[in-house]
């Protein structure tokens, strides 16, 4: 991968991950819990959110290795659910805020790529086009992945709003080993891999097709992620 593409992709990946977390804190703050603001996490500055391994080293390694898989994370923004004005509803809104921010970012990057396309620069060999395509892909991936309804992912916060009684109690108990379930499903259960792939492709198409970019995305991403 071209050094400029690596640099641009790394910046967009870090910004996608940290913005995701900042939006959790921002919505929680608006809904009554100032914990993130009090800890300095209510900012788009990536530095307070960065985890050296999950935010920088892991995504950079995956981009450079050309695996086509890009994963990463930031320090989770702390939320005190009991300080939310309507804990049951607001916890779901806080959970939804992160994936929604990624979809908004994906659309914004798609608009920039559409401008490059209008200028005749949206081709696989142009580093900025590659970086923007990777940025769109990563933001969609983060949104789709985090909406998996298994604790502690954001989708579980949304699903909890629709559960009650014993079903809710049993569901919450999944959080103690939820990460193991997620890893097993994503890496060792092909139907889950196919579902995630299809969901990411469909979501990317929905974002880029209205801008006339869908036909350009595949060759650009293939050049960027599988050089």
Account of the protein in words:
The protein is mostly helical and 227 residues long. It has one domain. It is 69% helix and 0% strand. The protein is built from 10 helices and no strands. α1 packs antiparallel against α4. It is globular. It starts with a helix and ends with a helix.
Total individual domains: 1
| N-end to C-end Cα span | 6 Å
Our Rg estimate from Cα atoms comes to 18 Å
Given as residue ranges, the uncertain stretches (5+ residues, pLDDT < 50) are: none
Helix share of residues?
55-70%
Strands, total number: 0
Percent of residues in β-strands: under 5%
Tally of contiguous helical segments: 10
Order of helices and strands: HHHHHHHHHH
* Helix/sheet category: mainly alpha
Which term fits the overall shape? globular
| Biggest pleated sheet | none
What number is the mean pLDDT? 88
SSE diagram, text form:
Layout: H1 3-30, H2 35-38, H3 52-65, H4 87-118, H5 127-146, H6 154-160, H7 165-173, H8 178-188, H9 190-208, H10 214-225
Helix pairs in contact: 1-3, 1-4, 1-5, 4-5, 4-6, 5-9, 5-10, 8-9
Label this structure with key terms.
227 residues, mainly alpha
């Amino acid at each position: 991968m071209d050094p400029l593409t690596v640099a641009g992709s790394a910046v967009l990946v870090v910004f996608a991950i940290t913005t995701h977390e900042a939006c959790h804190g921002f919505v929680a703050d608006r809904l009554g819990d100032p914990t993130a603001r009090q800890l300095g996490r209510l900012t788009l500055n990536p530095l307070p959110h960065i985890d050296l391994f999950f935010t920088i080293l892991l995504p950079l390694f995956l981009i450079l290795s050309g695996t086509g898989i890009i994963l990463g994370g930031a320090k989770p923004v702390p939320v005190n659910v009991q300080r939310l004005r309507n804990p049951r509803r607001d916890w779901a809104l806080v959970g939804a805020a992160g994936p929604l921010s990624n979809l908004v970012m994906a659309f914004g990057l798609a608009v920039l790529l559409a401008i490059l396309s209008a200028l005749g620069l949206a081709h696989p060999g142009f580093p900025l086009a590659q970086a923007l395509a990777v940025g769109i892909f990563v933001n969609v991936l983060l949104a789709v992945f985090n909406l998996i309804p298994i604790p502690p992912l954001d989708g579980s916060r949304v699903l909890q709003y629709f559960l009650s009684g014993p079903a809710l109690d049993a569901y919450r108990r999944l959080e103690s080993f939820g990460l193991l379930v997620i890893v097993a499903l994503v890496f060792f259960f092909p139907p889950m891999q196919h579902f995630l792939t299809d969901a990411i492709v469909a979501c990317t198409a929905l974002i880029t097709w209205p801008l006339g970019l869908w036909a350009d995305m595949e060759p650009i991403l293939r050049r960027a992620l599988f050089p």
